[in-house]
Amino acid sequence: MKDLAVGIPGAQQWVNDLPNEANKKFVADYKAKYKASPSFYGAQTYDALALLESAVVAVKGDLTKKDEMRKEMEKANFKSVRGNFKFGPNHIPIQNFYLQDVVKQGDDYVLKTVATIVENDQDKHVGKCPMK
Question: How far apart are CA 106 and CA 99, in angstroms?
Answer without folding.
Answer: 22
